[in-house]
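TODO from last week: model Lytic murein transglycosylase.
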Amino acid sequence: MRPASLILALTLAAAPPAAQACGGSFSGFVADLEREAVSRGHDPAAARRFFSGIRQSPSVLKADRAQGVFQKPFIDFARNLISASRLKQGQAKSGQYDAVFDRIERTYGVNRGVLLAFWAFETDYGGFQGNFNTANALVTLSHDCRRPELFRPQVFAALELYERGAFDPATTTGAWAGEIGMVQMLPRDIIESGVDADGDGRVSLKTSAPDALTSGAAMLSSFGWRAGEPWLQEVRVPAGMDWSQSGVDVSKPVRDWEAMGVSARSGNLSHGLTASLILPQGHKGPAFLAYPNFNVYFDWNQSFTYVLTAAYFATRLEGAPVFDARAPETGLSGADMKSLQRRLQARGHDVGKIDGILGAGTRAAVQKEQARLGLPADAWPTPALLSRL
């Protein structure tokens, strides 16, 4: 469903100059990968065996270009992913693996709800882990010129796993973007954070829930997860506050938000921390305070809507009530969102790809234009904004 933790690839050590090459003959590209692998110190015979059966995967490219689900607004997206069945099953899994979660929380400080939510969304608690050939997927996406710098390092990580006897290029399968196992980890993540939690001598992310959950927790910990701190809390907001202060780029002490009239919908706000005010569908829709741990989610997945939904579901699994949808203003269709992005781009805003998805760049541009036009600057694009532009 998602390119899990692809941001890790951006932090890897610089590769040889050829590492940025993409496109051209696929067979020639694979031959270049094999030569580069040997230059990196991989065993020539192992590299030859690993790359000998690699095939380009049209189905991977199709999946990469068909992520329309992320065009849905938060309320629809969350209601689509969070069902009574998923919630009930999550609660059952929490009990089934209670000792595992207790050990994870003691060791890594990652709450069980956080891991259960990822487990649910990524593979439906391990029920569907993807049937794409992982080696083919990674090489295909490396050859494709959209994001080769993200996927190419993962090819060499998969080769390293193969040399360790932990990966079979012919039979290892997973998601279309190369993630493997119950919580969907990329090869580099497995090398850096894989944990043999069940003590059988192997890191088995596809068949061992303790291994998968503990490895996921280790990865979140490496991203900077802060033990004992919250990640997301639903709040109530007063009418007429300065909406330009909302968004993940603005962080304030919680007491400052409280002074502005923000209050917890249930429980208490976490004083002593900073937080951002999140209005996924504008000032008339649901509202959340996102604490520092929320930012760690973006190292797992870079979709704002996915991250917010996963973080919210984690709170539900730990007892939070269903969010108050309130009455958000009507948003834009996918076609209208693309039209908006073009108009924003024409005004000099960097909105990234024209894809109809309300990502971080589009939200920032919308908020700036709303402020310029005297509209509530809540980063939620409406037909009225589109008309004004």
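Done. The chain is about 45% helix and 5% strand.
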